[in-house]
Amino acid sequence: MKTLGPRPQLSVSSSSSHEAPLKKFLSDSGTFRDGDLLVNRDGLRILPDGGLDSPAPLQPLDSQFSLADVDSIKVIGKGNGGIVQLVRHKQTSQFFALKVIQMNVEESIRRLIVQELKINRWSQCPYIVVCHHALYDNGIISILLEYMDGGSLSDLIRKVGSIPEAYLSAICKQVLKGLVYLHHEMHIIHRDIKPSNLLVNHRGEVKITDFGVSAILDRTSGLRDTVVGTYTYMSPERISAKKYGHKSDIWSLGLVLLECATGSFPYTPVDKDKGWTIYELLEAVVDQPPPQAPSDQFAPEFCSFISACMQKNPEDRLSAQRLLTHRFITKYECPDVNLASYLTSVGSPLATF
Ligand code: ATP
Ligand code: MG
Question: What is the value of pTM for the model shown?
Fold first, then answer.
């Protein structure tokens, strides 16, 4: 590893030119370290000063945060509503993810979303992505989030194909702790648990993101316009427009885990060539028996865990609290299962962008 002398200029003025400044100091084969920013030909990662296992404590940002306070480095993701960028705060040199959303909803709802996000700021849970700031300006919502350098579980599945059970257990344990916090302390239903909303980092931390927004959209007519395609992780009772509660998130978690373990979405159309429409998929979730983990490929603990999550009657599903004591979680609670080294060894999904 080579250490650079003077700090290279990383600032870019617009997202369209985000790649250009990095090219200045990328070599064909080397890896460069610029303070806590590690760059190689695959992409970039953040290394906290003092080593991988000792995260630098975040300094509180000015409460009068504005977009002019950050330099944009790279686009790291795209969702239905907009893009997510890696940015560096000019004054403190801290890295953040900046999510910029242009929603096809009324002005009043956008304001409501920002208001809600502000309430969610600095949530006191290590298993929830911190939302540092939320701004609304000229039809655009900007959210400054804690940066998770491993990306999302959907990035990870794309990269590794499927996640081995032992690591899935370690991931699931942290997601369950996040859900216990949301369900039993905050009394919130997330409503949008899916692989792209579960983020990981090289320290082996797993955190839930994007709560709040879907709750508001759910209360308004905006949902249909904005989040088509995410219906697929919805529980049968939600699809059927029945009353639903926090067990709805447990169904989604079961589906996510099954997808992570097998590497493919658990519902498959009868005619694979033809595929199916979102309505046919919704019908399948409501009408078909729930998907199961194949017992010839997975341990009985995993199969039983999936079955405990994916009961069509929400009352038959276990709560996040109960699932934390399930054999699938306790079985792998040993030092051999080092999620941090697994996530580091599979590399930063940022490399694929
Ligand atoms: P949808 O818009 O339907 O909710 P989505 O969850 O994929 O879909 P985003 O929430 O905009 O859309 O996220 C897009 C991608 O951006 C994620 O898959 C992830 O790779 C990346 N991302 C989002 N938030 C962060 C973050 N805080 N740190 C690092 N990467 C992030
Ligand atoms: Mg998301």
Answer: 0.82
